[in-house]
Structures
1.
Amino acid sequence: MNVVILAAGMGKRMQSALPKVLHPLAGKPLLSHVIATAHSLHAVSICVVYGHGGDQVLSSVAADDLQFALQEPQLGTGHAVAQAMPMLDDNVPTLVLYGDVPLTTTASLLRLMDVAGKDKLAILTAEMADPTGLGRIVREDDEIKRIVEQKDANEQERKITEINTGIMIAPTRPLKQWLSTLSNNNAQGEYYLTDIVARAVADGVKVVSAQPDAIWETLGVNSKVQLAELERVHQLNIARQLLEQGVTLLDPARIDVRGTLQCGRDVSIDVGCVFEGEVTLGDGVSIAAHCVIKNAHIAAGTVIKPFCHIENASVGAQSQIGPYARLRPGTELAEDVHIGNFVEIKNSQIAAHSKANHLAYVGDATIGSRVNIGAGTITCNYDGVNKSRTVIEDDAFIGSDTQLVAPVRVGKGATLGAGTTLTKDAPAGKLTVSRARQLTIDGWQRPVKIKK
């Protein structure tokens, strides 16, 4: 099939300079969700009809397998679809989707395609207790005859509760003909796509319908309020899937997944956690409250304590991280590594059974096994121009308040005394100390304030 995605609207109610279809839902633009759904249907052609904020839309979603059609000015949904017609394959049906309706599922669209076949006009409809503002499906003897918009509906038609979601699929050659005959003689002065229903009936084309699995699949975004409501719907759907997979969520209403989260068995996630990009949690992983984890792999049995930030990093099995730890891009931790509170690791590899339990910065470093990093330790990796590497070999002990001025190497089994500033390599198996000699000044008195 062809897919046409309507994405030209300004979205005035969003109160934003950002085009409506580029506002994020679960970390990616509304329009990107719809494009992903179109890809899942294996469409032969996907055409995005854009208008307001055109350059931003193009730069945000441009891809080799997408086509774009400009709608300028915006004269209604029928006019929008007409802009895409020259780019479509006449031999397959055309499905119309909306760039601000992000959660329509592949399953519901496949159901719509199935009832449409190759020669019917099929509309995704839904029953709504309060259909105010929406187009109504007008049937006669249970057959769809036309769609009437709220502003054009009479009193009897406004009582109809079956509504048009806007999503439809039609045979492309007749669709082109129907679009060419549309009129803007209506309350909005626009060319309605819905008017093709009456054209199809007049041409003897059967008009059929299918329904989505859930009403939220049909909901669009016109304001920040609606965006926030749909975000919660989406996140609750994700939470429900995780629960069904056996993940323990302390509160399903307080988790945000902005990407893909894969979990092993017996994973536990506390409240307020945010997962971005591609995140994998191994068997038995425990994530405590208010952690932010982005593009990371956390191996089995690891405990992430509260308020940790982990980005573009991997954590080995049976490790303990946090609370208040930050693992920056390029961090690679082996098994049973302990990273404690207020410790920051960047672009460093730490081998098994090593520890940095509190108040340390480890950047651009390679650290061996069974190394102890004392409190207040800093790798001085940046001289204002270049970044250099620190190497600490197996079984080294780094005393508290130590600065390692890279490039520098600490040999296997070496000990650095507390307060050391290391500017040269420390030999293996020996104690290296760099500190001023302690003095006591007899007769010294602390200054006092003079009263005026």
2.
Amino acid sequence: MAQEEMTQRVKSLEQKLKNMQGSTCQKSIAFKDLCMFPGVRLPLGFKTPKFEKYDGHGDPIAHLKRYCNQLRGVEGKEELAMAYFGESLTGVASEWFMDQETSHWHVWDDMAQAFVRQFQYNIDIAPDRNSLANLKKKSTESFREYAIKWREQAARVKPPMDDHELITVFLQAQEPDYFQNMMSAVGKSFLEAIKIGKMVENGLKTGKIISQAVLKAAT
């Protein structure tokens, strides 16, 4: 009898522990607790624009400009602009937004400044001309893959480079085998530079172009 009573007590204690865990871990799924801006009322006939998404990479201020341009019709209705800002975010940016305590945001500027502070590092680590000149091609990537990656980084440089400077800095980034065989790219478009680089790459693979490393080893 004592054994049965002990077993019942153990089961009762286990059930209490489960109930306690459930009550501490489970979050409310009520609308008022899930909706970040429950007091915002949509204007009659309002249609949500198809926002360009920000994933936590790139200039956060540039994203704010794009977002505001897409919501030109709600000027003066800051709460509405704040309520829909999450719709323009994805990935880590969306996760950050969902974790925020919106009661700290009284006006648009509060939210916008918090957003910029969070992703300011994208501006701080933006590439410059020197970093681009040192961005070398990896042995594991094709010339085309490397050139596209390089061009994407170049697009973030401020002030922007014109076509002539773009090609000049791109050539500075090349290893000797590519540099000496790509001088004809000067004065051409970046697309033409990629084509010339691919020809050099093919020449090195087929032996039509002798690499500097091979010449040094031979001598």
